[in-house]
Amino acid sequence: MHIANDIPMIEKSWPHIREEVYAFRSLLDAGIPVAFGSDVPIETMNPFHAFIRAVKRKHQCDPAQDSWWPLEAITAEEAIDAYSFGAAMSSCSEQLRGTIARGYLADLIVIEDYRKLEPEYWLEARSLMTMIGGEVVRFEV
User: Fold this and answer.
1) 3-state SS string for 117-137
2) Is residue 141 in a domain?
3) pLDDT above 70 as % of the chain
4) Which of 29, 34, 40, 124 would be a feasible disulfide site paired with 82, CB 3.0-4.6 Å?
């Protein structure tokens, strides 16, 4: 979540290690699991904003900005996996959550088919349906 706001600080204070900071692609390519989460109240709790930050790597998510270290960008699917299965693994609860399968908690959302949309979709994305523990708690038509 922090990458979009940390870029100027990294460039100013840590230029000697900038290619090692938020190195999501390198971590995944090395087989190292990545887990995402929120940092409320420091950052927004909206996970969709983390997706575009990991995919586009732009200061303040500004579409006019150049991507920062674009070779370290990951796909939207990898960001979703980091927020779901990666987060479950980091909390040692991957036998209970993080996957859509029989016997799991069924905490999930339904969204538009982002694969057919521009990456900026994530800035305005919202859940069309939300389930917690297998119960529908929100449904939008």
Assistant:
1) CCCCHHHHCCCCEEEECCEEE
2) no
3) 100
4) 34
Residue 126 confidence class, pLDDT cut points 50, 70, 90: very high
Q: Which pLDDT does position 97 carry in this prediction?
A: 93
Residues 6+ apart with CB under 8 A from 46: none
Where in the sequence is the domain holding 64, given as residue range(s)?
3-99
- Token pair recorded at residue 16: 């000697």
Mapping DSSP to helix (H, G, I), strand (E, B) and coil, where does residue 91 land? coil
Query: Which amino acid is present at 60?
Result: Q
- pLDDT (0 to 100) of residue 35: 94
- With respect to residue 128, please indicate whether it lies within any of the assigned structural domains: no
Dig out the tokens for 26 from the structure: 């390198």
Give me the number of domains the chain comprises.
1
* Amino acid 120: pLDDT: 86
- Other Cβ atoms less than 10 A from the Cβ of 8: the count is 11
> What is the torsion angle, in degrees rounded to the nearest 10, for the CA atoms of residue 101, residue 29, residue 60 and residue 49?
0
Whether 85 and 36 have beta carbons less than 8 Å apart is answered as no
| Residue 65, helix vs strand vs coil | coil
> Which range in 4-8, 59-63, 90-94 is most confidently predicted, on average pLDDT?
90-94
